[in-house]
Design goal:
The complex is a heterodimer of chains A (107) and B (114).
Chain A (H helix, E strand, L loop, with lengths): L3 E3 L4 E4 L4 E7 L6 E7 L6 E6 L3 E4 L2 E6 L4 E6 L8 E9 L1 E4 L3 E6 L1
Parallel strand pairs in A: 2-11
Antiparallel strand pairs in A: 1-3, 3-8, 4-5, 4-9, 6-7, 7-8, 9-10, 9-11
Chain B lengths: L4 E3 L2 E4 L5 E6 L6 E7 L6 E7 L2 E5 L6 E5 L5 E5 L8 E8 L9 E2 L3 E5 L1
Parallel strand pairs in B: 2-11
Antiparallel strand pairs in B: 1-3, 3-8, 4-5, 4-9, 5-6, 7-8, 9-10, 9-11
The chains are: A mainly beta (107), B mainly beta (114).
């Protein structure tokens, strides 16, 4: 089983829509979780850190479910500029990444 | 911008050659981690350096080696290059080692092995 697995998508959504996707992790002892955003051929940029049950930053909400070992990311009121690949990472001193979820927001 | 820089931005090498990639960490950060990202995949952890010592290593062969200098900048060296080494190489710096330390990535070095 992979350490971190994500739904690859792609998720194609209209502007203004809400989109949500999950990331599952295998190590039940993991304590720190991150969502990164990666644009094509660029480096990952930190979007959000999750240390407890969840985190919210504007239109972005992350939820952590320790019992089922997954983290979700929800994007409300999607903008064209939200089109990117979203990488989930689990920190066990090193970051273990999923392969990413591709989101495309269309006009 | 994260303040993490990498050089060079692009590199083309042939099989069997050796390559050195460089990373300058964000000011105040003492930990540098290196990742390899193949096309369509998430970054894969190579190793981490904390205060000039290797602090963990992923599933990469010994021909991948590294260094960290007193100013916390770092190098990744790859010997005997193989075609599968073609990837984006990312370094990330963090304030300290261990969990709950957010890692910030540099722009990466895109390596092509022919």
């Amino acid at each position: 089983r992979k350490e971190v697995e994500q739904d690859p998508g792609p998720f194609n959504v209209p502007e203004g829509a809400t989109v949500a996707f999950n990331c599952t992790y295998s190590n039940s002892a993991s304590q720190s979780f991150f969502w990164y955003r990666q644009d094509c051929r660029k480096e990952p940029k930190l979007l959000m850190s999750v240390y407890s049950s969840g985190n919210e930053d504007g239109r972005f909400t992350a939820q952590l479910n320790r019992a089922s070992q997954y983290i979700s990311l929800l994007i409300r009121d999607s903008k064209l500029s939200d089109s990117a690949t979203y990488l989930c990472a689990v920190d066990d001193y090193k970051l273990s990444f999923g392969a990413g979820t591709t989101v495309t927001v269309r006009a | 911008e994260t303040g993490v820089t990498q050089s060079p931005t692009h590199l083309i090498k042939t099989r069997g050659q050796q390559v050195t990639l460089r990373c300058s960490s964000q000011s105040g950060h003492n930990t540098v981690s290196w990742y390899q990202q193949a096309l369509g995949q998430g970054p894969q952890f190579i190793f981490q350096y904390y205060r000039e010592e290797e602090n963990g290593r992923g599933n990469f062969p010994p021909r991948f080696s590294g260094l960290q200098f007193p100013n916390y900048s770092s190098e990744l060296n790859v010997n005997a290059l193989e075609l599968d080494d073609s990837a984006l190489y990312l370094c990330a710096s963090s304030l300290d080692a261990g969990g709950k330390n957010e890692q910030f990535f540099g722009p990466g070095t895109r390596l092509t092995v022919l």
